[in-house]
Amino acid sequence: MKTLGIVVVILGIIGTLVFGIQAMNKSQSLNIFGNEIVISTISWLPITVSIVLLIGGILLLAFTQKR
Asked: What gap in Å lies between CA 15 and CA 60, rounded to an integer?
């Protein structure tokens, strides 16, 4: 279980970084009357799944070490 937790944490970190960088690259900003407006054209589902994997892996590691 500990190995599975480590793998899930690593996948969560990689996914969060990759999809987070893609999200930053796909956003556009406009300056209108001195206000910056950011328009994002990405899907938030991959980032959300990656964060859930990361949290799940951390919880798996935490509960595996207590036993």
From this structure: 18
